[in-house]
Specification:
With about 600 residues, this protein is α+β, with helices and mostly antiparallel strands. It has 3 domains: about 180 residues, no CATH class; about 150 residues, Neuraminidase (6 Propeller), CATH 2.120.10; about 190 residues, no CATH class. Helix content is about 35%, strand content about 30%. The protein is built from 8 helices and 30 strands. The strands form 7 sheets. Strands 27-28-29-1-30 form a 5-stranded antiparallel sheet, with no helix packed on it. A 5-stranded antiparallel sheet has the order 14-15-16-17-18. The chain has a 4-stranded antiparallel sheet with strand order 2-3-4-5, with no helix packed on it. β25 and β26 form a beta hairpin. α3 runs antiparallel to α6 and α4 packs antiparallel against α5. The radius of gyration is 37 Å and the shape is globular.
Length: about 600
C-alpha cells in the first residue's frame, strides 16, 4: 500500500466522524428552531368531531279516513256535524239520519227507505245542537227545535230556486234566491213562514268600452261572520248581450241581512258563466280575513281588510271549502269527482292537495274540529277523518294528511283553576268548623307566599305582553298588590291570635291568581287560532262567555283577598267558585269535546 492510500485510510474515520457530527448538530438545531416556533405560534387545535345528528322523532299519530257508512243504498248529499260526535246527514228518499257517536251508529229521523218516492233532503243548517233546518225538494223548509223531530215549517224559494240560505237565530233568516232571469235576497223574522224582499236586484256600475253602464249581478253564495255581519258574492254580466262576465261583486250587510250594499267590485278576474255553472265560494274567518274562490276562472283570492281589497294566491281550491277554526280549512272539488282533498293549516295562505281513494265521489263534507271531519256520497257512504296512534289498523281505512293538533292548554288551565278554588273552599270550611287556623298555619302561609308571588309575577308578565298592558291588567296588578299587603298583615295578626281572616290563605290565593292570569292570557290566543267556526254563532258566544267569566273571576278574587270579615269573604268566595266552574265548562265547550284530542 502506497503512502497516499495509507493516508486516505487514516482519514476515512475522521471524515465519517465529522459527517455524523454535522448531522447531529443539524438535528439539534432543527429541534431548537421547532421548539422556538411552537412557543411563538400556538398549535392549531384539532378539528372537533361533529356530533352525529339526532334522528327525527318518529310520529306518534297519523291521519286516516275510516268508513262509518249508513247501511242503505242511498245517495247522501248533505252533512252537518255540530261536534266531533253529534251530526246529521241527508239525501235521497226524504232521508235525514243522525249519529251521537261519530258515525258508529245512525238513527233514521226521516225517510231512510230507498224505495220511498220522496224528494231528496239537502242543505242542512244548524245554529246549535237543537235548532236545525233543511230543504226537501225545491220548496219545503223543514226544521227541528229539539234535534230529533222534524216538521215542515214554511217554504223556501217562493217560486225561485234557493241558492243559499242561513239562519242567524231561531226566527231570523236570509235567503239568496235565483233563476234564469235574475236573483234577489229575501229576509224573514218568523222562522220562514213569511219573507220580505230586501233588494229588487243586484246592480253595480262598470266602465265597458269606455262607457259607464249599470250592470246586473248574479249572486251565488253567502257567509256570515256574526249574527249582524255577512257577505254575499256574485258575478256581473258585461252588458253587451253575450253573457260574458267582467267582475266579481261583494255585497255586505251589517244588520243581519235586512239591508245590503255593494261593498267591493273586483274587475277583470272572472270568465264567462262563472256564476251559472261554477258558483263562487266565500268564507270569512273573522270580519277582516276572508277567502274567495272562482272555480271556473281558476282564481283564489284573499282579503285582510274585510273584503275591500283582494290579492291573488296560488290556485289549489276548485270547490266548496270550510274552516274548522281560523287556521285549518278543507275543500273538495265536488264538481269534478270530489276525491281530492285540499287543505290549509295557516288560514288559507297556502293550500295542499292530496288524492284520497274514497269508495264513491264526495258529495258534501263537514269539519266540526281541526282533527275531525266527515264526508258523504253515494250508496250511503260516510267516511270519518280522525287522528289515531301510528300503529292503528282497521279494515278499509285510507291514509290521510295529519292535521295539526291543539297547542292551547286553555281548557286544562281552566279545570286547574276550578280545582284550586274548590280546594280553597274546603280549607275555608274546615277552618270555620275548627274555629280558625293556628298561628303556625298563618306563619307558614306568610313564608310560602313568597314563592307563589314569583309564579304570579311570571304569569302576569305573560298576560301583559299579550294584552299590551291594558287598564284592566293594571287594575288587576293594583288589586294584587293590595291583596299581598293584606296577606302579610293578616298573617302577622293571626300569629298574634287575632280573629279569623281570609288573608291567611296567601299561598292558595297566589296560586289561584297565577292560574287565572294564565287563563286570561290564553283566551286571545284561542280566539286567533282555535276559535270554532263550524257553528259560527256558537263560537262567538263562547268567546264572549270566556271573557265575561274571566273578568268575574278576577273581580271575585280581588273581593275575597281584601275582605275583612268572614261574611263578605264567604260571599266573594262563592262568586269566585261560580265563575271558575263556569269558566271550566265554557273552555271545555270551546274545544267541542276536547277530551277526544290525542
Amino acid at each position: 500500500m502506497n503512502h497516499r492510500a495509507r493516508l486516505a485510510g487514516k482519514r476515512a474515520p475522521l471524515v465519517v466522524t465529522a459527517t455524523l457530527a454535522c448531522l447531529l448538530l443539524g438535528l439539534v438545531s432543527a429541534n431548537v428552531a421547532l421548539a422556538q416556533r411552537s412557543k411563538s405560534t400556538p398549535a392549531k387545535p384539532k378539528p372537533a368531531m361533529s356530533a352525529p345528528a339526532k334522528p327525527a322523532a318518529a310520529p306518534k299519530v297519523k291521519g286516516i279516513f275510516e268508513p262509518v257508512n249508513f247501511k242503505e243504498d242511498l245517495r247522501l248529499e248533505s252533512v252537518c256535524f255540530l261536534t266531533p260526535e253529534l251530526g246529521y246527514a241527508s239525501g235521497e228518499a226524504g232521508t235525514i239520519i243522525r249519529t251521537t257517536d261519530g258515525g258508529e251508529s245512525w238513527t233514521v229521523q226521516l225517510g231512510g227507505d230507498p224505495q220511498t218516492q220522496l224528494p231528496p233532503v239537502h242543505s242542512l243548517r244548524f245554529i246549535d245542537e237543537t235548532h236545525g233546518w233543511a230543504i226537501m225538494g225545491d220548496k219545503k223548509l223543514l226544521r227541528t227545535t229539539d234535534g230529533e223531530n222534524w216538521q215542515e215549517y214554511g217554504r223556501s224559494g217562493e217560486g225561485w230556486g234557493c241558492k243559499d240560505y242561513i239562519f242567524t237565530s231561531p226566527t231570523t233568516a236570509v235567503q239568496l234566491l235565483g233563476s234564469d232571469d235574475g236573483n234577489r235576497i229575501t229576509y224573514t223574522k218568523d222562522g220562514g213562514l213569511t219573507y220580505q224582499q230586501v233588494n229588487p236586484s243586484c246592480q253595480v256600475g262598470l266602465e265597458i268600452n269606455g262607457l259607464r253602464r249599470n250592470v246586473s249581478c248574479r249572486l251565488s253564495t253567502m257567509h256570515f261572520v256574526s249574527p249582524e255581519v255577512g257577505y254575499a258574492v256574485g258575478a256581473t254580466e258585461s252588458g253587451n248581450g253575450d253573457a260574458s262576465l267582467s267582475a266579481i261583486v261583494i255585497l255586505k250587510t251589517t244588520d243581519g241581512g235586512g239591508s245590503w250594499v255593494a261593498h267591493a267590485v273586483v274587475e277583470n278576474v272572472a270568465k264567462a258563466y262563472e256564476s251559472w255553472y261554477y258558483p263562487q265560494q266565500i268564507f270569512f274567518t273573522d270580519e277582516n280575513n276572508g277567502v274567495l274562490v272562482l272555480p271556473w276562472s281558476e282564481k283564489f283570492l284573499v282579503t285582510s281588510d274585510g273584503g275591500r281589497t283582494w290579492e291573488g294566491r296560488f290556485f289549489a281550491v276548485r270547490g266548496p271549502f270550510k274552516f274548522a277554526d281560523p287556521e285549518v280549512g278543507w275543500s273538495f272539488n265536488i264538481h269534478h269527482g270530489g276525491k281530492d282533498l285540499s287543505f290549509t293549516t295557516n288560514g288559507g295562505k297556502l293550500w295542499t292537495t292530496r288524492p284520497i281513494k274514497f269508495a264513491a265521489e264526495v258529495k258534501a263534507f263537514s269539519l266540526p274540529r281541526r282533527d275531525r271531519g266527515y264526508v258523504v256520497g253515494d250508496h250511503g257512504m260516510v267516511y270519518r277523518y280522525r287522528t289515531v296512534p301510528i300503529n292503528y289498523e282497521a279494515p278499509h281505512i285510507l291514509d290521510a294528511p295529519l292535521m295539526p293538533g291543539f297547542d292551547s292548554s286553555l281548557d286544562e288551565e281552566a279545570e286547574t283553576l276550578a280545582t284550586e278554588v274548590a280546594a280553597l273552599e274546603d280549607a275555608v270550611e274546615s277552618d270555620a268548623g275548627s274555629g280558625g287556623a293556628t298561628a303556625t298555619d298563618a306563619n307558614d302561609d306568610a313564608e310560602e307566599s313568597e314563592d307563589a308571588d314569583e309564579m304570579t309575577a311570571e304569569a302576569d308578565a305573560g298576560s301583559d305582553s299579550k294584552d299590551g298592558g291594558s287598564a284592566e291588567g293594571e287594575s288587576d296588578d293594583a288589586n294584587e298588590e293590595d291583596g299581598d299587603a293584606a296577606v302579610a298583615s293578616g298573617a302577622a295578626s293571626d300569629a298574634k291570635g287575632a280573629t279569623w281572616s281570609p288573608q291567611r290563605y296567601g299561598t292558595r290565593l297566589q296560586k289561584i291568581q297565577a292560574t287565572l292570569a294564565s287563563v286570561s292570557a290564553g283566551i286571545p290566543k284561542f280566539q286567533g287560532k282555535l276559535r270554532n267556526l263550524n257553528l259560527i254563532f256558537f263560537g262567538l258566544q263562547i268567546l264572549d262567555e270566556l271573557t265575561d267569566q274571566g273578568s268575574s273571576a278576577q273581580t271575585a278574587l280581588a273581593s275575597f283577598r281584601s275582605a275583612r270579615d268572614s261574611e263578605s269573604a264567604r260571599a266573594a268566595l262563592a262568586e269566585l267558585s261560580q265563575a271558575a266552574q263556569a269558566l271550566a265548562a265554557t273552555a271545555r265547550a270551546a274545544f267541542r269535546g276536547n277530551a277526544l284530542k290525542p
